[in-house]
Each structure stands twice: as structure tokens, then as C-alpha cells.
């Protein structure tokens, strides 16, 4: 490689950003990888498991984290976002802003700071369904594996308990935000996706019922390191459900919400339905769908679901969900195949909400659905779910292609 070439900047450290970074560094080029959260891994790290092989997120991610740690060509920053980009292909100037790092890199993750910390915060990793202390480790396979202090909830020097408890002198509560100026040759935007806000779909009653959750929340409910640790319990009364309904295209393919298909929700719900059957073989599952869109190896899930007598696929859009006094949920839908209006009473409803491209402060061209388009100033390359919805294996392929473009 040309040693005078400047590094490539990758914005976003989910599976696609991490893969792009590793691919570029392993052919000998310098990389700077930034992530706005205190940990890498993006949405995948929050999953219970992921298709097609249904392996835990540790599978693909841990090895990549090791490759990053071992590769001196990759410089990485967490809790960091871009503030400003100027310049052109081969010669961009970028200012990045890192929020105060109250816990330094010599943290051994002994956990004494969290033990003594008196303040609590909602745990964003579990979508606020659980709390952690203001001094916390994001999750067990967090990379970097170190504690973090939540600026908003920590009482800083007026408390100081964690500073006194830390044997390694790894806490500095006076730390300030840091601006770093970078010169880079090209920029890959790997900013990924967020879940569509289910509270906007008023007819599906998400905001008013505790027993209606979204597909991403389902992943955190059921995960072994999640809200219920491998159990699915209703929030209203902590009981295991005997009947669960999935509502596909919750807000998707709907002009009032997201006019497009998010490509992964059908496979995700089939994965979820099979997980419920594994945990609770007697629980009845109904999946209400408009069209079942699964492809490639995920078609195996469809066959498995069709063969399972406790899972029923109902072709019909759910128009309304009403909560009964006992917390059960009455779904009203039209069964397209029989032409009849049906009502179904479930104990938990999972809304398969779609993917929206992450909002950023980057001034980039976006398409009519707000995904980042390929038409940017030369040298800026969008990748994976920042440019359109796709699954992990397509994201990884897209990352390899972005790596080649960035090097060129
Ligand atoms: C319910 C559900 C279940 C799914 N299950 C599966 C499955 O089982 N198998 C499968 O193959 N696919 C699955 N998917 C799809 C999978 O989540 C995506 O393919 C994958 O997350 C794409 O990775 P990514 O890196 O593009 O984006 P993300 O995972 O979203 O990562 C983006 C990263 O960028 C960071 N970021 C965002 N903005 C900024 C910024 N301005 N500055 C710095 N950093 C930023 C984010 O914090 C995040 O870490 C599922 C999707 C859904 C909705």
C-alpha cells in the first residue's frame, strides 16, 4: 500500500463498520473507526441470536473485536461522533467529538465503581426496561470491556464515591469532552438503522399497553443477558404467555408510516416464533402477515414454522388492537384467505416494526425514504443498513465492497 495515503474514516461500529475496518486494515491500510455508543457491535450485539444459523451475537462479533484489538492499523474511538467534514476525495478534514471519558483505559472492569454508585439510570441496552447504576458496564461482551459513567445521571464530584472505591485510579470525574482533528482519504458511513417508532402507529395501541412490545424489544426480553433472561414474561403481571401474536408490517408498506419493506422482519418474526416454541412448546403463536417475504437460507424457517402445529400463519393485516381488563389483547384482522373478519385474543403481542436509517448530523444525500444514497461527493461511501435495509450476511458483503471502494 502507498504509505503516504491517509487513513480511511469509518463512522459507525456495527457489524458493517467493524467488518469494513478489519477488511481495510488487513490489506495494510490505516483505519479510524468511530462509534457514538460506548461499545461496538451496533444492533446485532443486542440480539438473542441471529439467523440463518441462529448463533449468539458473540459468534461473528468477538472474532472481529479481537482482530481490531490486535491490529495496530486500526485506531478506534467510542462515545464519538463527527462534528464537521470538509475537503474532498483523498483529502478530507474531519472534526470528531468524544464525550467525557470519566473512566480511563486502565479500568480493569473490577466493578467496584458500580457496586458503590448510588445513582440509577435506565439501561438503553435493554430499551429502558431495566436499570443500571450510573457507573455501568454496557454488557458482558462489551468491546472495549470497561466501565462507563453516564454523564446525565452521575452526580460527579459532589458524590465521588466511585473515585474513592477505584483501586486503580481509573476514574477522573473532571474529564472534559474532546475534539480531535483528522485528515482522512475517504469516509465510510456505516451508521445503520433504528427501529420505527411504534407509538406513531396509533391503531396498534403500543403506547397504552404494557403487553405489546416491538420485535427489537422481544430480542432483549428473551436474551440470556436480557430483561427476563431466556424467559418471555408479560410486563403487566410477570406471567408466561399461553398465546402470542405477531403483527407483521407494523407501520411498514404503509404510506402513512414507512412505504417500503424492511426485508428482515418476516425472517425475524419466524425466528422469534420458533424461539417461543423452544421455550414454551405448548404456547400458541399466530403470525399475522400481508406477504411472507423470506429468502435464501431463511426459507428453512418458513418450512419449520409451517410444520409446527402450534404456529399459525394468518394472511391478513391487523387493523386494531384493544386491551382487555385482564391485560389480554384483542386483535382485529381480516383473514384474506377465508374473506372473514376475525378477532384473536393474545396475552402478548409483538409488533414487527421496520428499519429506518439512523439519523445523523452528517450532511449527506438521502433518498425519499431517508436512506443515505450512493450519490455523495466522491470519497464518501455509504454501507449496509445506512443505505437500505438488509440482513447481516448482506451487510458483511456490502462492507467488503465498501472496503474496496474506500481503498481505491
Ligand atoms: C427485529 C430484527 C431482528 C433481526 N434479526 C436478524 C437476524 O437474526 N439475522 C440477520 O442477519 N439480520 C437480522 N436483522 C438485521 C440486522 O440487524 C442488520 O443487518 C445489521 O444490524 C446491520 O448492521 P449495520 O452495521 O449496518 O447497522 P447497525 O447494527 O445499526 O450498526 C450501526 C452502528 O452505527 C452507530 N452509529 C449510528 N449513527 C452514528 C453516528 N452518527 N456516529 C457514530 N456512530 C453511529 C450505531 O450506534 C451502531 O453501533 C434484524 C433486524 C431486526 C429489525
Secondary-structure blueprint:
Layout: E1 8-11, H1 15-25, E2 31-34, H2 58-70, E3 74-77, E4 80-88, E5 91-98, H3 112-116, E6 120-122, E7 131-133, E8 135-136, E9 148-149, H4 161-165, E10 178-184, E11 186-189, E12 193-195, E13 212-214, H5 215-222, E14 243-250, H6 265-279, E15 284-289, H7 299-307, E16 311-315, E17 318-323, E18 329-335, E19 340-346, E20 348-353, E21 355-357, E22 380-382, H8 392-407
Helix pairs in contact: 1-2, 1-8, 6-7
The structure holds flavin-adenine dinucleotide.
Flavin-adenine dinucleotide (FAD) binds at residues 11-17, 34-37, 42-44, 47, 50-51, 81, 190-193, 215-216, 264, 268, 271, 355, 358, 360, 384-385, 390-393, 395.
Element string (H = helix, E = strand): EHEHEEEHEEEEHEEEEHEHEHEEEEEEEH
| CATH class descriptor of the largest domain | Alpha Beta
CATH-defined fold name of the largest domain:
FAD/NAD(P)-binding domain
Number of helices: 8
Average pLDDT, all residues: 96
Helix share of residues?
10-25%
**CATH homology-level superfamily of the largest domain:** FAD/NAD(P)-binding domain
Sheet with most strands = 5 strands, parallel
Bound molecules: flavin-adenine dinucleotide
Task: Give a verbal description of the structure.
This protein is of the alpha/beta class and 408 residues long. It has three domains: 158 residues, FAD/NAD(P)-binding domain; 54 residues, no CATH class; 159 residues, FAD/NAD(P)-binding domain (3-Layer(bba) Sandwich), CATH 3.50.50. Helices cover 20% and strands 26% of the residues. It contains eight helices and 22 strands. It has a five-stranded parallel sheet with strand order 3-2-1-11-22, with helices on one face. Strands 13-20-14-15-16 form a five-stranded parallel sheet. α2 links the parallel β2 and β3. α1 runs parallel beside α8. The chain starts with 7 loop residues before the first strand and ends with a helix. The relative contact order is 0.16. The structure holds flavin-adenine dinucleotide. Flavin-adenine dinucleotide binds next to α1, α5, α6 and α8. The site of flavin-adenine dinucleotide has 37 residues, from α1, α5, α6 and α8.
Amino acid at each position: 500500500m502507498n504509505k503516504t495515503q491517509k487513513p480511511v474514516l469509518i463512522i459507525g461500529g456495527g457489524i458493517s463498520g467493524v467488518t469494513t475496518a478489519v477488511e481495510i486494515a488487513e490489506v495494510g491500510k490505516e483505519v479510524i473507526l468511530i462509534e457514538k455508543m460506548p461499545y461496538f457491535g451496533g444492533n446485532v450485539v443486542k440480539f438473542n441470536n441471529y439467523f440463518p444459523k441462529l448463533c449468539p451475537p458473540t459468534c461473528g462479533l468477538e472474532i472481529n473485536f479481537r482482530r481490531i484489538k490486535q491490529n495496530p492499523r486500526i485506531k478506534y474511538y467510542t462515545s464519538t461522533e463527527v462534528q464537521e467534514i470538509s475537503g474532498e476525495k483523498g483529502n478530507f478534514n474531519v472534526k470528531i467529538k468524544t464525550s467525557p471519558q470519566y473512566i480511563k483505559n486502565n479500568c480493569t472492569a473490577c466493578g467496584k465503581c458500580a457496586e458503590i454508585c448510588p445513582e440509577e439510570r435506565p439501561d438503553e441496552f435493554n430499551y429502558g426496561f431495566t436499570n443500571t447504576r450510573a457507573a455501568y458496564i454496557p454488557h458482558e461482551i462489551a468491546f472495549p470491556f470497561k466501565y462507563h459513567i453516564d454523564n446525565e445521571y452521575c452526580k460527579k464530584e459532589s458524590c465521588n464515591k466511585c473515585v474513592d472505591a477505584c483501586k486503580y485510579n481509573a476514574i477522573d470525574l473532571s474529564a472534559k469532552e474532546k475534539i480531535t482533528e483528522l485528515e482522512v482519504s475517504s469516509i465510510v458511513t456505516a451508521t445503520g438503522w433504528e427501529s420505527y417508532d411504534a407509538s406513531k402507529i396509533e391503531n396498534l395501541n403500543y403506547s397504552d399497553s404494557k403487553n405489546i412490545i416491538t420485535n427489537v424489544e422481544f430480542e432483549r426480553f428473551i436474551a440470556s443477558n436480557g430483561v427476563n433472561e431466556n424467559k418471555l414474561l408479560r410486563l403487566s403481571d410477570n406471567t408466561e404467555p399461553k398465546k402470542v401474536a405477531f403483527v407483521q408490517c407494523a407501520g411498514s408498506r404503509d404510506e402513512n408510516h414507512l412505504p417500503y419493506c424492511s426485508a428482515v422482519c418476516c425472517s425475524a418474526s419466524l425466528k422469534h416464533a420458533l424461539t417461543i416454541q423452544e421455550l414454551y412448546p405448548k404456547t400458541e403463536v399466530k403470525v399475522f402477515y400481508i406477504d411472507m417475504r423470506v429468502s435464501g437460507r431463511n426459507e428453512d424457517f418458513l418450512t419449520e414454522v409451517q410444520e409446527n402445529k402450534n404456529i399459525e400463519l394468518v394472511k391478513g393485516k391487523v387493523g386494531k388492537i384493544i386491551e382487555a381488563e385482564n391485560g389480554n389483547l384483542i386483535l382485529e384482522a381480516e383473514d384474506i384467505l377465508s374473506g372473514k373478519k376475525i378477532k384473536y385474543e393474545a396475552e402478548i403481542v409483538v409488533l414487527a416494526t421496520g428499519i429506518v436509517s439512523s439519523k445523523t448530523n452528517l450532511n449527506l444525500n438521502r433518498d425519499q425514504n431517508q436512506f443515505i444514497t450512493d450519490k455523495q461527493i466522491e470519497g464518501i461511501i455509504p454501507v449496509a443498513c445506512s443505505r437500505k435495509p438488509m440482513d447481516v450476511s448482506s451487510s458483511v458483503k456490502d462492507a467488503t465492497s465498501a472496503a474496496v471502494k474506500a481503498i481505491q
